[in-house]
């Protein structure tokens, strides 16, 4: 009797877990589909602003494949067909629109549409670059981050998209210099001079710090002191560590000099 009860409980529990899991997959999946519809729509709008109507239609098609009753996508695809003189297709979309406008409004989709549209305008969001993958200036502005790693990461993205803007190399070179990657900085500075003749390279001796090898950066060298004491005819030995300040460095760091290539504006 008791076993049956436990088994029943397990079944109920498994059932609950399963339903919950199913429920979660459906919501994330439909969000994924909605996201595709909206992303394709936003990309198509970029094409329209560049008067690339054919390419916009391709994107509206995939948007409408995910969300067939996406009113804005249909409206703008209709406009594109009109621009290209495709009367039949334009009329077809017009009819579809009339039908959809009578149907029930999908509140959830409208909400997501607003959220994604807003997010696409925010250059700090990764979604922005899904819609505008060629926004090198966005990455350049985004390099206004606190961490040098992120600054370098976003400037590298900007350079990948547009390798002709000296500012990207100038900034990245500076951040490489700041993080002690002098040879990478030099590479970028050479690129700046190549792209903008207002700049020139110069060599400077820099005093740099590095971790002391003698004391491994601790600032102390330790010597082992073994002292032996005779206690009641038995010899006891004890080991002590003596810490002495390292004579090769200052607080664990040594200076060294290095010639580095930097950049400046021509006079
Ligand atoms: Zn040392």
Explain the overall architecture.
The chain has about 270 residues and is an alpha+beta fold. The strands form two sheets. A two-stranded antiparallel sheet has the order 1-4. A two-stranded antiparallel sheet has the order 2-3. Helices cover about 60% and strands about 20% of the residues. It folds into three domains: about 1-130, Serine Threonine Protein Phosphatase 5, Tetratricopeptide repeat (Alpha Horseshoe), CATH 1.25.40; about 135-195, Alpha Horseshoe (Serine Threonine Protein Phosphatase 5, Tetratricopeptide repeat), CATH 1.25.40; about 200-265, no CATH class. It has ten helices and four strands; from the N terminus they run ααααααααααββββ. It has helices spanning about 1-50, 55-65, 70-85, 85-100, 105-120, 125-130, 135-140, 150-160, 165-180, 180-195; strands spanning about 200-210, 220-230, 235-245, 255-265. It is elongated and about 110 Å long. A hairpin with a 2-residue loop joins β2 and β3 (about 235-245). α1 (about 1-50) crosses α5, α2 packs antiparallel against α3 (about 70-85) and α9 (about 165-180) packs antiparallel against α10 (about 180-195). Zinc ion binds near residues 215, 246 and 248.
